[in-house]
Amino acid sequence: MSNSTSDFQGWVDQPNTRGTFDIIQSSFLTIFFCTWTCLHLNVPAPNEGYWRPILRKFRWMVLTIFAPEFVFALAAGQRCDAKRVLDSLKRMGYHEWTLRHCFYSNMGGFVLHPRDSVPFPIHGFHFRWLLRNGYIELPSLKTEEIKDKSKADDFTKIVVCLQTGWFVLQCLARAAQRLPLTTLELLTMTYVWCTWAIYVEWLRKPLDVEVPMILKTEASTEEILIYAGPTAACPYRRTPLDFVWEGSPSWTLDFQPNLGFRLDPRRRPMPRILNDLLPRFKEASDIVIVNVVILAYAAIHLSGWNFTFQTQTEKTLWRIASLIILCTVAIFCILARVIPLRILSTIYPFRISERKVTPRSIFYVSTGKLERIVGGPGLPIRNRKEEKHVHDQIRILAAAPIVIVYVLARLCVMVEAFVALRALPRGCFENVNWTAFIPHF
């Protein structure tokens, strides 16, 4: 059953009341601030020019529009990595370094230039290993110098938070006075929530650094690999220091090749640190915080459960899509951390041997007792690094159906947010009576 058409009104002009253009303009500007200014991408590759980094940031803005909680998870993972590097450096006695320094090193702020070898960017874990083994010295880099390289400071972020905060305040004031919100404004609230969370995680990460610092070493790449021993004998995927830290799985290297296209740098060693390394959390507190923020983001959609829609079909679709978003996000959080999916990883030891996968072998692998069957006829020697790589790929592929369902629900919500603008409840055009919040004595 549809609502009465007399309860709705088409395009409304201002300035006598809140117009349709006011709603669109306010929401669009807030979404832009949320999805563009919050992005702190890694240092670009040398000689990329002016437009390629901007195009990359535009692609990430589109991703943030469709999945802001994913970008938040990446930001949280990067902060955890920076914190781990900082803790290890302090244990080595380098107490003058801060979290900002570690963010700078993790984003490709340092480029190693070995003797008679091609220079390549290093991650903070590479930096720590090189420092511990005497290949480099701790650079004389002050916090003020990193801030000077960054294109924004804390004040700029505070201004953006105030702008988005004003939008949230207006929405809360409308709710307090029982004035209806539009679905577009509710959708914008989800971006604001994720943006604030992203700002907290990337508060100390420099913004739009263009030129890295060169670290020279007297050793050549070959000498470094020989000194590292057998662990450095395997071919690398990113840089010659992959044996120190290869990096967590990424969309670019571990998923896109299965789709038949790649956007990553083709040159090896890679000229930049990728932005899409999937997050890894070790502390329980970090896992809880990330899950709470993401679930709260998904739950905001349910606030529109009793919104007034033009048709009952639109209301039903919004409710179903909101529930799907919440459920898929919850399932994804569970699969990512609580259920390790080790059973699916049994494919690896039998993939080469072409032996039949039995319930007994699944039990051995899922309980970490692969040694019980390794060494049998045709079974390969256990390769923990390869197992980890295959295990990560299986995680990604297992999550693919959930992601597809989530994307469809997300598209449904986004389309409805714009379709509903064709005619809105009359109360949407009423202004907030701010004087009503002033106490009267």
Describe this structure in words.
The chain has helices at residues 20-36, 51-66, 68-91, 99-106, 124-132, 143-149, 154-176, 183-201, 221-228, 251-254, 256-259, 284-300, 312-338, 347-353, 359-366, 384-419, and strands at 8-9, 110-113, 120-122, 213-216, 424-425. By secondary structure, it is mostly helical. Helix 8 packs antiparallel against helix 16. It is elongated and about 75 Å long.
Largest sheet: 3 strands, mixed
User: In which order are the strands of the major sheet placed?
Assistant: 3-2-4
The outline comes out as elongated
Strand content bin? under 5%
| Unreliable stretches covering 5 or more consecutive residues | 338-355, 370-382
- N to C succession of SSEs: EHHHHEEHHHHEHHHHHHHHE
Structural class: mainly alpha
Alpha-carbon distance between the two ends: 47 Å
Oligomer: single chain
Rg for CA atoms = 26 Å
- The tally of beta strands, per DSSP, is 5
Number of helices: 16
Mean pLDDT: 83
Q: Helical content, roughly? A: 40-55%
What are its keywords?
two-stranded antiparallel sheet, three-stranded mixed beta sheet, 441 residues, elongated, single chain, 16 helices, mainly alpha
Brief summary:
The chain is mainly α and 441 residues long. The chain has helices at residues 20-36, 51-66, 68-91, 99-106, 124-132, 143-149, 154-176, 183-201, 221-228, 251-254, 256-259, 284-300, 312-338, 347-353, 359-366, 384-419; strands spanning 8-9, 110-113, 120-122, 213-216, 424-425.
